Amino acid sequence: MAPKKRPETQKPPDIAVRLKSKSVPSTRELEPATKKLYALNPGSSRRCDSCCLLAELANLQVPSQSSIIRALHQQKLGRVTWPSLQQGLQKSFLQSLASYQVFQRVAPFDRRATSLAWHPTHPSTLAVGSKGGDILLWNFGIKDKPTFIKGIGAGGSITALKFNQLNTNQFFACSMEGTTRLQDFKGNILRVFTSSNSCNVWFCSLDVSTKSQVLVTGDNVGHVILLNTDGKELWTLKMHKKKVTHVALNPCCDWLLATASIDQTVKIWDLRQIRGKTSFLYSLPHRHPVNSACFSPDGARLLTTDQYSEIRVYSASQWDCPVSLICHPHRHFQHLTPIKATWHPRYNLIVVGRYPDPNLKSCIPYELRTIDVFDGSSGKMMCQLYDPGYSGITSLNEFNPMGDTLASAMGYHILIWSQEEAGPQKEHELG
């Protein structure tokens, strides 16, 4: 069935280009600062005339803490509906997002970053894996040096990372080394779940359900393996014709599994009813190979990113037909970590890095490599982040569980975006 594309009713917003400064400008400072900033309008010419937009942003009144508390009280009394309250909070967040800038960075690897995962309970800690198999545990909220685990180098690429919810000093990882394993940040391998024992087969994706105590992992030849977290294999099935780039368990119904593949399909499975490779609930055909398929935090939607120019949103009400199709440049390149769109943990927002493609009609001259934020329902562009000091392609972008800090992987660099007003940008060095 051909995907339904919702017509765009408004032009996407302009890009606010941030100059390096020692602090994030306040709302009062934004209006005069517009004279020093320039912006790019994706729907018009390369030079900008969008200082007016920045001035308008400066004049917007962000709700204060007291007004948010008042709104919550009104909602409790039944005077404000929950969707209306959510929309108000999301609007407030988007206004604050326009002032985000890079305030910390680290470049610890000799090869590009390939995966990242936020700590589930500590909002300033994340783990990052590299193409050389190195793994970094970085708490950017303290001055101590990050924890660094050295990899094997060539052939050791960390393809997926996930913290162990039951012991956050441990993490699950799969790699081109040919294993899916449980490891701690001292470098000890605690359990090997899968091992291919072959340089021709490796593991590309994983997810874990703490509630059901299962782990699922996919390899580069189309197999998906389900195991108990104690290491016992439940089954191995060839679910796709080619590499399984992503596996995701639904956060609310962890028996629901989504798998994405470069065979140009995403499939949805019921783990309670799997009998073979044809026992999927839905098969979602795409025009190009697919990099990822992520369930929303409430489990009601599925976000897919292909290897060319489409981002799709599917809904639980009709899994086999996208409710939103977003045209967005993020084409695949051999020496670039595949670009993957992700959900904001609290709002119906999608974040993804842009890789401008001159072959697309929507491309304009001198288009910037921004981080784009879309509304998950309408597919409308809501905001774009850009720092001229870090103008590379950000392949991985993910908000922390609190939803107030964004981590980006840009080649060798890991960037932290925030409203933080703690002084000049900080750069951590590994000694």
From TrEMBL:
Residues 1-28 are annotated as: Disordered. One of its GO terms (cellular component) is cell junction. It is found in: Chromosome; Nucleus. The keyword Lyase does not apply. Pathway: Protein modification; protein ubiquitination. GO terms for molecular function: damaged DNA binding; protein-containing complex binding; ubiquitin-protein transferase activity. SUPFAM superfamilies: WD40 repeat-like. Keywords: Chromosome, DNA damage, DNA repair, DNA-binding, Nucleus, Repeat, Ubl conjugation pathway, WD repeat. Belongs to the WD repeat DDB2/WDR76 family. This is DNA damage-binding protein 2. It comes from Nannospalax galili (Northern Israeli blind subterranean mole rat). The lineage of its organism: Eukaryota, Metazoa, Chordata, Craniata, Vertebrata.
